[in-house]
């Protein structure tokens, strides 16, 4: 007697994953890029402690992680700015706000042009 390696609930889960992939294929690229940018922004804000009343005392404060997220966001925005259309301005403003918040939060701020993502965006003051 052979056993089915995929129990019925596993097969149902695989079908749901496949449906998600099909749905993603229907999503315009600009929406995927915008969602990725918002996810990076939100995560960076959390790592800067901006969701807490006193960011300096936030248990989520992690400047190393924030630097990585802001740099990734800067690369994404720089590479896709021509496709962002009306979303470009607000996303760029959000990126610059995060870069400034990082500078303000850091005990030893990077020199202009050396902060997170500034190799892509240029210096942020």
Automatic annotation (TrEMBL):
Cited InterPro entries: DUF1844 (IPR014995)
Protein name: Recombinase RecA
Biased composition regions of type Basic and acidic residues, renumbered to the chain: 101-117
Region (Disordered): 101-125
Domain of life: Bacteria
Organism: Rhodococcus spongiicola
